Amino acid sequence: MRRLLYVVLGLAVAVVLWEGYKAVGNPDGTVLFGVRILPRADDLSMPHLWNVLERLGRPELTGGRPVWIVVLQACLFTLGITAAGFVIGALVGLLLAVAMERFRIVERGLLPYVILSQTVPLVALAPLVAGWGGTIMPSWATVSVIAAYLAFFPVAVGMLRGLQSPSAAGVELMRSYAAGWWRTLVKLRFPASLPYLFPALRLAGAAAVVGAVVGEISTGTRGGIGRLIIEYSREATSDPAKVYTAMLGAALLGLVVAGLVSLLELPLMRHRRHVEVVTL
Amino acid sequence: MSAVVVSSVTKTFNPGRPDEVVALSDVDLTVGDGEFVSLIGPSGCGKSTLLRLIADLIAPTTGTVTVAGKPAGVARKEQAYGIAFQQSGLFEWRTVLRNVELPLELRGLAKAERKAKAEEMLALVGLEEFAGHYPAQLSGGMQQRVAIARALAVQPPLLLMDEPFGALDEMTRERLQSELLAICAKTGTSTVFVTHSISEAVFLSDRVVVMSARPGRITASIPVGLPTRDEAARQSEHYFESVTAVRQALRGTPLKSAS
Q1: Which pTM value belongs to this model?
Q2: N or C: which end of chain A has fewer CB within 10 A?
Q3: A 153-192 residues with CB below 8 A of B?
Q4: Is B201 within 8 Å of B208 (Cβ atoms)?
Q5: Domain architecture of chain B: domains with CATH
Q6: Given its phi and psi angles, is residue A74 left (phi above 0), alpha (psi -120 to 50 degrees) or beta?
Q7: Using alpha carbons only, what angle is made at residue B24 by residues B243 and A165, rounded to the nearest 5 degrees?
Q8: What pLDDT digit, counting tens, does each position of B192-251 carry?
Q9: Could you report the predicted ipTM of this complex, rounded to two decimals?
């Protein structure tokens, strides 16, 4: 209940900031020494929020479906791509982390490339992956690959730290029980890594959304919210509220993904609830 | 048969490198069946290393270690010993009961059987009411008791303890010492106990093995064997004589036999 209140409060603050700046800001933006440090506040750059909401209800094109349905459908399409990318990325990240934990040499050899992988600009990579679309996989799947490419990284790095987190005493204990590598992984390393895994998954969720949106744009895949943002932004001069409806959809998508990921950890983190220490 | 036989063991860490350390040099030690032996010495004397060698957590550079007549490696694979460290090392995601069940689980016992056994062990350390708690909910002394229950769960003939009470306050420590003695007497377990407290070593042990550092070696073996192990024993003449004997051995001054 209180949580809901904070969410509403946060929204209200955002609305006040937006409309407040619009009321007091210079319509042409504030320029200092030739650099625009504050954005334009005119209706073309920052439409009133009620205009955006009202635009959601009107048809996309004359006689077409209302914008909110189009945006929602695009979000669902992108959600599917994001989910596929997230699952693939998380699995790849997990496998890499386990391999790196198991073999020191793999960690030394692979970790630099794992980090390097994230410095390659996505837009340079996208056309390469897009070429697979329609031949070895449907074109939406190429976008999932791009999302997975971003999502695997936090999981691989976070999970590696988690797998390496058990104390020496814990590892020695497992050895004293004559437990091999696999049983030590299952009974000790994996459960110990959960507090590292979940924040990593949340990052991966956000990365998958970004990957899906950017991937849609750079591979030219139709049907998703990324594509919709590009399409609507072409009409920004005549219909400025329209592009913001698509951005609203993208933000909503991010929130939904973050919410779904945090749902994952509820049943697994029960024991880490706040508890009182018994002193006897 | 002896519970533990360590013969001419040497342990060198990082051999052949600039940071080479001779942790143990030519150590012989025999622990009889049902005997309680303490290893005492200044830090860096290799007492924990010796315990880890017996547990086969590390391998000796030269020499042999036998546990219950078998090479240490075989004994470890048969879970022929239970071990407890200074940090309780409980798994925080498992309840107290499931922590004690862990070694039984790895032995492949059926669920009902290991639950019954774990409950029995918790009763032994007086924590049966806390079976459903998580370790974070317990005080340090209680966690250490759970760790001891876990070490005893497979009912091993040998118990290895590395300063298990080192992080506890004096009151808790003395209570747990009495509990440990009662458990060892009841189960007939042989024990190797690493400590740096003279009074703890003397009170608990049949024999105190004194070690010195650089290189780690055994310098004296002092039989204690207090007739009783109660509060009166902590005040007895015999107790103070043994404390003095161990202290002198630690300082390296010559001594006459204490017993």
Answers
A1: 0.80
A2: N
A3: 167, 169-170, 172-173, 175-179, 183, 187-188, 191-192
A4: yes
A5: 1-80+192-259 (3.40.50.300)
A6: alpha
A7: 95
A8: 999 988 989 999 999 999 998 888 888 888 888 777 777 778 888 888 888 888 898 888
A9: 0.83
